[in-house]
Amino acid sequence: MVTILETELKKGIEQAIKKAKKSLAPILVSEVQKVEHIEPLSFFSAGKDKFYGERFFWKDPEEQTYLIGLGICKQIQNEQLSDRFVAVEKEWDDLIKEAIVFNGDGKRGTGPLAFGGFSFDPLKEKTSLWSQYSHSLFHLPQFLLTLVDGEAYLTTNVVCTQYDDMTVWKKVFSDRQTILSFASSSAALEMAQILKKEEVVNPDEWKDSVQKLVADLKAGQLKKVVLARELRLFFKDKVAADFVLPRLLKEQRASFTFALESNGDCFIGASPERLVKKDNGQLFSTCLAGSIARGKTKEEDEHLGETLLSDEKNLIEHHYVVEMIKAAMEKVCQQIELPTKPTLLKMRDIQHLYTPIVGEALEDSTLLQVVDSLHPTPALGGLPQREAVEKIRKIEALDRGFYGAPIGWLDYQGNGEFAVALRSALIQGSEASLFAGCGIVEDSDAESEYAETNIKFRPMLSALGGLENE
Ligand SMILES: C=C(O[C@@H]1C=C(C(=O)O)C=C[C@H]1O)C(=O)O
Ligand SMILES: [Mg+2]
C-alpha cells in the first residue's frame, strides 16, 4: 500500500482559498509526491466506480512515460471552428499562471497537466456518434499517476474558489486515500466482453468514393487525400476500457496507447504515429505513410518490407508527408534533422515507411502552436492540406470525430506530446466504432486500399476480441 506521510496540500489549499477570495478567480493547487511503484492499469481501474467517465490513460512507444488521470479537476473545452489550439493554450496558461505548485523534482509529466485532444475537422458536421466529445477537450485530472524514468509520482490537483472552505481539503485527502488503497489491491482485469456482430459500414460506397477520388487526383491539382471508413461492433454486454487496455498494452507495445473517457463514452487506441513531442528545447515529429502487411514467416516478412521500401506508389504517398512536415518543422525550428530515405516501422499487424524528424525549437514556439501548424499532416489529410481537408469534408461519409486528430498532453512547463489518434475505436456502451483510413494517390486501387484499411482495423479488433478465431 502506498502511503503519503507528509503533505503540503493543506497549506496550499489554505493559500489558494485566500488568493481566490482576493482575485475572485479560481486558483489551482497542485502537489506532486514521489510514491512507490503503482501498476498503471491498477491505478486506472481503481477509479472504475468513483471516476467512471472521467479517466484517461497514456503510454508512449518507448514505455518511458505513463500518465493515468482520474477525476476531472478542470475541463478545458470549446466548440470553436477556428483558433481552437490557441484558445486551449490560452485557457491553460491562464490557469497555470496563478497556480500554487509543490513539485520538488519537477519531472516532465508531473504536476499540472492537461490531457485531451481535438476533433479532426471542426467544420465537418458533428453526428450523434461524437456527441459526447467537444471539438477541443482537455482534462486536468484530480489525481494523476506519472511513471517517468522508472519512478512513480502522484499529483493531486484542486481548484479552489472564493466560496470554498477547508472541507475541500478533507474530501481530497480521503479520496486520495481511497484511490491509493484500491490501486494497491486491484489487479489488471482480463477481457470479458463477447462480440456478437461486426458491421462493415458502407463498404461499396467507400470503394466507389476511392475510385472517383482517383479520377479527380489524375485530373486536378490534388496530390493525395486520405479516406477513412468505419467498422461497427456489437457486444453482448457493456465494454469497459479496463478490459481493452491490458490487451492493447500487450499486443501493441511499440505504440502510443491512449484512452480518453468523456460522458460515458471512451475513445481508445494504439497509434504508431507521433505528431509531435516537445522536450524542453527539442521537437520530435514522425512521417509515417505507406503500408504493407506483415509476413507469416521471417522470409516473407523481409520480402514484404523490401517490396514496400521500393514501391513507387507507397514512396510517393510517404514523400508527400515528409515534404509537408519538413516545411512545417522548418518554420518552428532553428534547425532540423531528417534522414534522406525512409526505413521500416514494423508493428504487430502492419509495416510502414517511416522518417523521423528532430528539431531545435525556436524559443517562442509552443507545443500547441506546433500541433496547429502540423495538423492534419498528409498522413491523415492530404496535399495540398486545405484542399484535401475540404475534399474529405465533402466526400467522406464518416464523422471522424477524434480519429486521425492530435491526442496527448501538455504540462505546466511547456513540455508534452501528441500522437495522431489512429488504430482507434470509440466505445459506446455495448457497441464500438473502429476507424481506419488510407492515403489515396493517383496510382491507388480501390480494392487494395480497402484491404489496407482491413489490416489497420486489426489492432483494435484484436484488443476487442474480434480476431479470436483466426
Ligand atoms: C489513416 C491511417 O493510417 C495512415 C495511413 C497510412 C497509409 O495509407 O499508408 C499509413 C500510416 C498512417 O499515416 C489509419 O491507420 O487509419
Ligand atoms: Mg497507404
Automatic annotation (TrEMBL):
Reactions performed catalytically: chorismate = isochorismate
Amino acids binding Mg(2+): E317, E452
GO biological process: menaquinone biosynthetic process; salicylic acid biosynthetic process
Cofactor(s) needed: Mg(2+)
Active site: K224 (proton acceptor), E273 (proton donor)
Keywords: Isomerase, Magnesium, Menaquinone biosynthesis, Metal-binding
Keyword Repressor: no
Entry EC no(s): 5.4.4.2
SUPFAM superfamilies: ADC synthase
A GO MF label: magnesium ion binding
Domain (Chorismate-utilising enzyme C-terminal) ranges: 203-456
Pathway noted in the entry: Quinol/quinone metabolism; 1,4-dihydroxy-2-naphthoate biosynthesis; 1,4-dihydroxy-2-naphthoate from chorismate: step 1/7; Quinol/quinone metabolism; menaquinone biosynthesis
Transmembrane segments: none
Protein task: Catalyzes the conversion of chorismate to isochorismate.
Protein family according to the UniProt entry: Belongs to the isochorismate synthase family.
PANTHER family per record: ISOCHORISMATE SYNTHASE ENTC, ISOCHORISMATE SYNTHASE MENF
Descriptive protein name: Isochorismate synthase MenF
Organism of provenance: Robertmurraya siralis
